[in-house]
Design a protein that fits this description.
CATH architecture of the largest domain: 2-Layer Sandwich
Strand order of the largest sheet: 1-2-4-5-3-8-9
Shape: elongated
Helix content: 55-70%
CATH superfamily of the largest domain: Reverse transcriptase/Diguanylate cyclase domain
Largest sheet: 7 strands, mixed
Strand content: 5-15%
Radius of gyration: 31 Å
Distance between the termini: 34 Å
Number of domains: 3
Length: about 350
């Protein structure tokens, strides 16, 4: 899951000294590590780009420049970061998932209780039937008396259950409202394991505001499973499984600063911060290649996955809806040419 990177300053013996006594010589006595050297490169790149070295910008460039490093360097730096990473968004997701699961348990309990009431009502009918059968025999007065007594007890119990069912219904309605409110506030899509549309819209709006201030370039790409592939499979469960495979690939290949979201109906959107159109095109090419190299087995049939991608830029004078529509139009443009896996539709002229 893409998320913020948090790093901690390394402590050394000089940290215990008063600030005034720490000199360049003191700092230079300890050799720089790979992470420290790379951090200086990131800071230099930020200043060169004319961007303020805020934590957010530093994180974005930290991820962006790391892609150009060797595999060993990337692995070494990533392993260090993972030891100290603290992702609040992921913690919120876990809480939301637990909360939803708790409500699911409550709903199941209420359903069981409702079934219990139905069984009690059915038992009352059965008892009445047995009572009528007993009335046909005059030499079973004692049995009839017992049946009558039991019938009265069942009726009393039935009245109690009716009152309880009213309370259960009230609790159920209140719980349903809570669940609905929680769903309206969530930022995570449980089905595909990525952020949801609500989170995406807020992040795009935030990015537009940042672009107005920093004048940097960011892009948006929309990804969907090939419609031809959907039609050829013609199986809803298989399509969902293929779509989940695409979601996993998006998460696996995305940078920490990228935001992967499920827009709806199996369509995904990735917000690529500080990424121009050319870089977005390269990212789309890489995604299309990775997906096409992934095979899906449906029964005895081996299916090659395929996606269609629409690319657009995020501009300061566009609304969130206009940017989303541009990415949708990019997908449609890609479908117009069977040879294209992706297409670009720019917001600026």
């Amino acid at each position: 899951m893409a998320g913020p990177i948090r790093t901690k300053l390394r402590r050394d013996n000089t940290a215990a000294k008063p600030l005034a006594t720490v000199t360049d010589r003191d700092v230079a006595t300890e050799p720089e590590g790979e992470l420290e050297q790379y951090s200086k490169e990131v800071l230099t790149a930020l200043i060169k780009a004319g961007l303020p070295p805020t934590p957010n910008n530093f994180t974005l460039y930290f991820d962006r420049l790391l892609e150009d490093k060797s595999q060993s360097t990337r692995s070494h730096i990533t392993s260090m970061l993972e030891l100290e990473e603290n992702n609040d968004a992921e913690n919120s997701i876990m809480i939301e998932q637990s909360l939803k699961q708790g409500f699911s348990y409550i709903k199941n309990i209420l359903n069981v209780t409702a079934n219990l009431y139905k069984n009690m009502a059915l038992m009352a009918k059965i008892l009445e039937k047995r009572k009528q059968e007993l009335e046909g025999s005059s030499d079973m007065q004692d049995a009839k008396n017992v049946a009558t007594s039991l019938g009265l007890d069942i009726l009393k119990l039935n009245e109690i259950v009716k009152k309880q069912s009213g309370s259960i219904k009230t609790m159920y309605d209140d719980t349903a409202k809570i669940i609905k409110n929680v769903e309206n506030e969530t930022i995570f899509d449980n089905q595909y394991g990525v952020y949801n549309k609500r989170y995406l819209m807020g992040k795009i709006e935030q990015e537009i505001s940042l672009i107005r201030k920093s004048k940097h370039k960011s892009s948006l790409i929309m990804i969907e499973l090939s419609r031809d592939l959907r039609e050829s499979v013609a199986n809803e469960k298989a399509v969902i499984l293929m779509t989940k495979t695409v979601a996993r690939i998006l998460l696996k290949t995305s940078r920490r600063s990228d935001i992967v979201t499920h827009y709806g109906n199996g369509v995904f959107v990735m917000l690529l911060k500080h990424t121009d159109i050319e870089s977005a095109k390269k990212a789309s090419e890489r995604l299309c290649e990775l997906v096409s190299n992934s095979n899906f087995f449906f029964g005895d049939r081996e299916i090659q996955l395929k996606i269609s991608v629409g690319i657009t830029d995020i501009t300061e004078d566009s609304s969130v809806e206009e940017i989303i529509v541009s990415s949708m139009d990019g997908v449609e443009k890609a479908y117009e040419n069977p040879k294209l896996d992706y297409a670009v539709l720019l917001r600026h002229t």
